[in-house]
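Newbie here. three chains, one complex. Structure please?
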Amino acid sequence: MLTLEGVTKRFGGLTAVRAVSLDVREHELVGIIGPNGAGKTTLFNVVAGYYRPEEGRVFFAGSDVTGRAPHDICRLGLTRTFQIVKPFGNLSVVDNVMIGALTRTPGVRAARSDAERVVDACGLAPYATARARALPIALRKRLEVARALATRPRVLLLDEVMAGLNPTELGGMVDLIRRLHAEGLTVVVIEHIMAAMMRLAQRIVVLHHGEKIAEGTPAQIVADRRVVDAYLGEEFVLAQA
Amino acid sequence: MTALTRHAGAVVLFGGAAVVPLVIRDAFFLDSLVLILLWGALSAAWNVAGGYAGQVSIGHASFFGIGAYAGALMVTRFGKSPWLGMLLGVVISIGAGLIIGFLSNRLKGPYFALSTIALSQVLLIAVSRWRGFTAGGEGIPVPFRPGFATLGLGHVAWVYMALAVAILYYGVEVYLEHSRIGYQLAGVREDEDAAEALGIATRALKVIAVTVSAALTSVCGTLWAQYVGFVDPAYVFSVDLSVRFALNTIIGGIGTALGPYLGSILITVLETYLRATFAGMKTGFTGIYLVIYGAALILVVRWAPEGLTGIAARLRARAAAGARGARAHA
Amino acid sequence: MDPARPLGPAQIDAVAQLGVSTILLGGIYALIAVGLTLIFGIMRVVNFAHGEFLMLGMYLAFWSFTLWRVDPYFVLVVAIPLFFVVGLVTYVLVMKGVITASHNVQIFTTFGLSILLQNVALVAWSGDFRFVRPWHLSVALRIGGTTFNLSQVVAFVIAVVLTVALVAFMKWTHTGRVMRATAQDRDAATLMGIDTDRVYRLTFAIGIAAVGAAGVLVAPLYSVYPTAGLQFVLLSYVVVVLGGLGDMAGALIGSLIVAAVEVAGSYVFGIAWKEIFYFLLFILVLVFRPAGLFGQRGSETLGA
């Protein structure tokens, strides 16, 4: 479904992502973890078309999408969310989602009813007419997901949608992601917090200093020596796991 | 809300403008009305790029000047109809709009604004220096030849001409507010990266918005030149003019269909009033008027960024809440 | 009065003439631009009214000279503290409120300020072109086989001294270091207990003092009128963009480049076309090197 072959992204002298290969199968729920600065978001930016990699290729649904514009990639069926949420602040929640829906549904009326369905499914119905900027962070993260869903993606890239949530909110987000996955969506999740990931992902990829240092089931990952070393400086994160 | 109540402001404004020439024949009054409508339409044209797409240009005088000169030169140099000049102006403005649109993809916020000023300054200098063709800094008087084909119209006819353009542009913006492209532009304006992630071709969309805005501005430039009967580079390409389009819109309500017209009324009436009040002063009214203008800009942007339409909406919401409260008590 | 046009005989060596003209002009542009770089780099605010403070400086020189026969170079002693205070007041009244606002708010606020100041000048002093003609304007100096007037040379020397003093202040004093730290990371600076409001106030005041001083210095070299600032503000932005945002050394090199383009452009195409070169250069730089010729520090945050 989504294949990365030896992707390398440099900024000046700094290599943010080094020769990362990855294969995400249809209906899979893959987690990407790693300490801050490991290159997770950079990797998403390469996959979603925001950065062009210096080396390597990205294939999506059988075609080479390396260096394609983000909107093209979205239209092909791969939509990402942003770690630092980017709501259309002055618009209502439902308008935010509708702008996503308009990518698949050209008619404004039809797009609005699509949007309302998605808003409902994401538990945002009570806030449908609120201005996006007025929402608390947990709901803005949800809006980020809802808006992406409205583009009817086949693969959804979620960039730290659980960071900064309290335990209840976190549980809600985990449930939402599980449900989307159960409904047939392929999901790739970036997370800094291992705990949530252990419960959620079928397969986990660990990035460290821009390189893939491990890949496997959650059980394999916690037992992996290199992973523990990479996280040594961040014991509190492991402790939560 | 029915269509009529939603556009009540526009119905009152444009309906009033349509009725007034039937009653009042005072030339000064009709002149003010034509200018209000033309400035309103020009501000509406700016609003397409600056308000709806969020590409704030301070060089829209470029397109105004292109339209004005295309019309004036078509008449004076080639002896052809100003309508043909309007068409040519639109074609050139589309070209210039594509350049500005391209810049909007490379540059953001203040840099984009600066580059638009630079473009208008380049045009100002080029037109001022190319004396052989444009008559340079002295400007060109546009001869008045009565008739629709030559745009030699009386005051009343000009009111209806300006009104037609104003209604047309209002219609364009109402369409924008309710169409797919309008929503997508709102996305681009609010957050470009997010819009791009949602499958919106942000770059193409910005170029389209800026180019349409340029073409609409150019049309009014031609009309203005034919109405006033004189063009000179220092005015038609001035930064002041560009700022005026923006200011009308901001004061009226940026990104709303009615805002540019409300702003135009307020500013034109204020200008006329101050002109009358300070006409006796040696240095003229221009300075005082612009001092107030500058101060108004600072205050509005800071304290009422949503302009007159925003204030009206807030009052309406409060009134509605009050009515609900009264009903709840009853 | 155009500093790009030397007074000497026509047969002088063109290259030396252009070279010296470039350096003289570049030094003055540097002082104008360095204040803008400071404000732009540290506060991340676009100040469209920057040129108007230059214009006010020019008028200060004009009136001091016309009313009391005070030479512009002595006016500097008053001008620098005066414009420092003007900067403080402007910051408190206008800039403080918009520093965290959106770019559009900043653009229109400073534009409003620009219109306001231009027209205050228009109402107070009319739109007439004024000239400051101190004695040193007609003293010819030969430099590198080329003739220049003394005003140009002194303006250059003072501009360079002031610019260097400012660069040194930023580099070596505690306050300067605090200001640069704030430029690099506003949030971190706040966390470290730096009073950012105080830093911005100081930055703006210093920036305005620099451009006001520049206005006084250039008054004998250009005509003085209410919109005299416009061409300089655009030019300063060219310099700032060329040199990289907030990079003071970059601004010095940018000034020389802009001066060279202007001098060479006027020489080849004639004085009448010289402004067109700033603007074309400006658009080209923005399009092809929006991050400046030497780097990209800070351009992302400004662009966002």
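Moderator note: Chain A has one domain: 2-240. Chain A touches chain B at residues 48, 50, 69-71, 74-75, 79-82, 86-91, 95, 98-100, 102-104, 106-108, 111, 147-148, 150-151 (CB under 8 Å). Thread marked as resolved.
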